[in-house]
Design goal:
The relative contact order is 0.22. The strands form two sheets. Strands 3-2-4-1-6-7 form a six-stranded mixed β-sheet. The mean pLDDT is 93. α2 links the parallel β2 and β3. It has six helices and eight strands, in the order βαβαβααβααββββ. By secondary structure, the protein is α/β, with parallel strands linked by helices.
């Protein structure tokens, strides 16, 4: 018998992101506005928790990147009374955004220039940053699909060992890898990956089980406008 689990998928808040640089492993903190938005989202979530009598798993799983850890820490500050035990943040590299490997944190133009200098590499497709299956030919690089599978594997590993499915488990990570994870978990379809985005700091809460359609309990995806380009996370 499959037991349903309740999870909250949370994209970190807005941070000091370098321009024209794939998010990769950028180490910068939340902006002041980003922190305020996360607090606003956490408080709104708290109202729902109060209304429904829901409780949170005291262990928050976060990516290792500062912006995600800060977001998780703000959730603890704002929602301390709703955790079923003393809350703490545990950081996992498995929850990080898609890595571009050896060219991490280089500008997009520089990455493409490096590829033209190496005779072993083909010219990347124009939409390589948002192509779910494309992987840059550098050590440590992965595709968005691979990153999503990595995140999904982490969630499934937690699910297999969780003893109290009534508690809502918070996972704080990055928009693109979360959406691709949601595809792997049968929460959204493949076309949804590009149709949807995520609001900063906003929890999307599901009741989900293997091979079954997840039930949305709280929050929602951001609908990407037709003119809106893929935004690095």
């Amino acid at each position: 018998m499959t037991t349903n689990m309740r999870i909250a998928l949370i994209r970190h808040g807005a941070y000091e992101q370098l321009k024209n640089v794939p998010s990769a492993l950028q180490p910068f903190p939340l902006t002041e506005e980003g922190e305020l938005e996360v607090r606003h989202q956490a408080r709104a979530f708290g109202e729902w928790l109060k209304q429904t009598g829901s409780k949170l798993n005291p262990e928050i799983d976060s990516s290792t990147l500062l912006r995600a850890w800060q977001t998780a820490s703000i959730y603890i500050e704002e929602l301390r009374d709703y955790f079923d035990g003393e809350p703490q943040v545990r950081c996992y590299s498995a929850l990080c955004e898609r890595s571009v490997g050896a060219v991490a944190n280089l500008p997009i133009d520089e990455i493409e220039r490096v590829m033209t200098l190496d005779p072993r590499f083909d010219t990347p497709p124009e939409n390589w940053k948002s192509d779910s299956y494309y992987c840059l030919p550098f050590d440590g690089a992965e595709s968005l699909m691979q990153a999503g599978q990595r995140v999904a594997d982490h969630l499934q590993s937690w699910k297999a060992s969780e003893k109290n499915p009534s508690l809502i488990k918070l996972f704080v990570g990055h928009g693109a890898s979360i959406r691709h994870c949601a595809f792997h978990l049968n929460i959204i379809t493949f076309p949804d990956i590009k149709r949807l985005s995520m609001f900063y700091g906003h929890p999307v809460v599901f009741d989900f089980a293997d091979n079954k359609k997840a039930k949305l309990l709280f929050g929602g995806w951001k609908i990407r406008q037709t003119h809106e380009h893929e935004v690095p996370d």
